[in-house]
Amino acid sequence: MRYTFGTSEKAADRLKQIGAFFNPVASALIKRFFHGPAGIALDLGCGPGFTTHMLEQSTLCRRIYGFDLSDDFLKLARKRFPTYHFFKHDVTVVPFPVRADIIYARFLLSHLKNAVSTVDNWAGELNNGGILFVEEVEDIFTDVGVFKDYLHANCGLIDSQGAELFIGKTLGKAAYKNYVMHNESVLLPVLNRQAADWFYPNTITIWESEDFIRNTLTPSKRKKISAELKKIMTGKNHKSDITWKMRRVVIRKET
Known about the structure:
Blueprint: H1 9-33, E1 40-44, H2 50-59, E2 63-68, H3 71-80, E3 85-88, E4 100-106, H4 115-124, E5 126-142, H5 145-160, H6 168-173, E6 179-190, H7 192-203, H8 211-216, H9 219-233, E7 242-252
Parallel strand pairs: 1-2, 1-4, 2-3, 4-5
Antiparallel strand pairs: 5-7, 6-7
């Protein structure tokens, strides 16, 4: 498996901005269903550690772990959070090196194949009574042309790798082996300039090296999308013409 949007320092900065928006929402979800403190908490696809920090703060866990395959991200995570435990591990491979009371994953299944069976495998790595939290995109609604062009290209890119950007649709309809405490979606409006800030870095990094993008979009089209996103990103308006529909699945492992 690989993270489609790169593991460079620019990618880490992008994830920091995304985390600043989504982490408070995730923390509220965790606190709604888990009343800590936890013994061991595990962040899957931890990247540079921003979600790991959110998970530690939300669960007040005794020990916090993060799994990722990127050496670059793990190096950054260990530097930022030296007291946490970060391991290089493929999250599709079980058993895990540790069992946890809480497992969290966000924006990870959209990069993996066999999402539903993967969720079942993750739940199986919990201690009895432990809780798995999964948050994935189900849809992104917008009438802004450049946003639609960008999302269409990225949907195709991820699809070309055998995964699904809007995997939340599949997760919402699935049947799981363990007890489902919560399976609902939430709408999260985002400022246009904030969305552009998340999108733009990919157009000047991974878009330049991905064969699918290079074969699908002409250089002039890629340049046009990038320029329009940068213009929105650096603008001063407060419009919100784009909304994330997030699927949130909470599963408890039965004894």
